[in-house]
Amino acid sequence: MKKLLAAPRIHFIFLFFFLTAFVTSHAQLPGLLPDLQTVVPIHLQLQNQQHREVIRFSNGIANTGQGELRLRAEFPVTDQNQPQLAIQEILDANRTKVYEAVVSQFQFHPEHNHWHINDVALFEIRSGSPTGPVFGTVSVKVTFCLIDWYRIEGNAPTSERIYWECNGDYQGLQPGWVDQYHQSLEGQELDITGAPAGLYYLVSTANPENAFLESDYLNNVAWTSFILSRKSQGNPKIEIVGHSPCPSPGLCGENVPNR
Prior knowledge:
This protein is mainly beta. It has one helix at 2-27; strands at 36-49, 52-63, 69-74, 84-91, 97-109, 114-127, 134-144, 150-151, 170-173, 177-181, 189-191, 198-206, 221-230, 236-243. The longest helix is centred in the first third of the chain and has 26 residues, at 2-27.
């Protein structure tokens, strides 16, 4: 029995030290780092679409760090229609660039008709618990156009936005701001066709590949739980029953604009 337990123990110890070293090394970067967090998913709706059952929802990515998330594309001279390198710039308190690194890609999104950044979020439906098995093949990595849409708390006057253009030189989020994708938009859905009745969790993870430089990689997950029931004819219905803990009303999804 000891031999069977040794490998998982070693794996856990390795993973712990790897994550500790990873977070520490990024925390020592110059300048002010952003901190990406997911707003609790809201506006969950169950819809039937062409014989498919889908959960639609609104999702927000917040920056709760001291520094801006600032990203620019590096367009090659040869072809600006192909995916472009996404370069993250780290700024100091005077908004002077002190560091930069290639972290992802910009890709043109024809459904939204503007440029998105890859690997911004991961959407999943999990059974029984937030870390339970993923239902079927329902795990979707999502591209976003990141802009200052609203403040986590308080009013969000347009004059105070720094990032507001999906086709401009920069995309990003300044500290204290959120970008939200409404449940009506393309891509804001997960397929649960044929899922048996039970307790499920819609889990959303910001920066799932740890691609973007930030101060804390351990607070990026938020979830909303719901009970799926089926009538005698098999028609599904969902009831929201809870959500992940959140440090502020804004990160709980309260007072979110319904864009």
